[in-house]
Amino acid sequence: MRTAEWSEGHWTTEPERVRTSDEGLLVTAKEGSDAWRITSYGFIHDTEHALLRPISVGEAVEVAFRADLPEQFDQAGVFLKTDDTNWIKAGVECSDGEPGVGAVVTRGESDWSLSPVPEWAGRIVTVRASLAPGAITIRARVDEEPWRLVRVAPLATDAILQAGPFCCAPTRAGLVVHFLSWRTTDADTALHAEG
User: Fold this and answer.
1) Cα angle vertex 55, ends 11, 129, to 5°?
2) 105 close to 98: Cβ distance less than 8 angstroms
3) Which domains are seen in the chain, by residue range?
4) How far apart (Å, rounded) are the C-alpha atoms in residues 186 and 182?
5) Which of 56, 93, 110, 135 is deepest in the core (most CB within 10 A)?
6) Which pLDDT score, from 0 to 100, does residue 155 have?
7) What is the per-residue pLDDT across 50-79, written as a single tens digit (0 to 9) for each?
């Protein structure tokens, strides 16, 4: 496992404020920041705060953060991008008053999956994205609990792929996300736990 330095990445959209400390990275999101393409809402938003660096097939990226996301659509996790119309964001998002774990997979247009995890509020969440040829496997966990499979999705991995932590605050100002770590490791080799 290798810890990435915060300085290794570049922002897709500069946040309101970024502060590093011994305990990680504190990111203040701009009001209206979001990533979405067309589906159901009709708009395109590409103002997410994603700190990205290249990643290769056979690697996984892990991002840990504190799930303090109390307002509608506050979100944080992992962002993977090949280009402006092909990307994935996965992590925790506040929806209808409670946190949910899920992913938005975008291949021209976005789709969204979300499962409520109210017990994750305020705790440390780690999201892992593993790259296999043509596919991404997303897993997440809270504290040291077992990994949960969140999503298996297609994504062109023959192109240059970048990945790293992200956050968005679509509906308000003042969201501060505390990222604790950003690491790369070997990709998961199996989709299911061995029994």
Assistant:
1) 90
2) no
3) 2-186 (2.60.120.200)
4) 14
5) 93
6) 85
7) 999 999 999 999 999 999 999 999 999 999
**Which residues on adjacent β-strands are paired with residue 191?**
none
CA atoms of 182 and 24, how far apart (whole Å):
9
Contact between 9 and 164 under an 8 Å Cβ cutoff? The reply is yes
Transcribe 64-123 into DSSP letters: EEE----STT-EEEEEEEEETTEEEEEEEEEETTEEEEEEEEEESEEEEEEEE-GGGTTS
HEC secondary structure over 144-192: CCCCEEEEEEECCCCCCEEEEEEEEECCCCCCEEEEEEEEEEECCCCCC
Residue indicated by tokens 């968005």 = 168
The pTM of this model reads 0.95
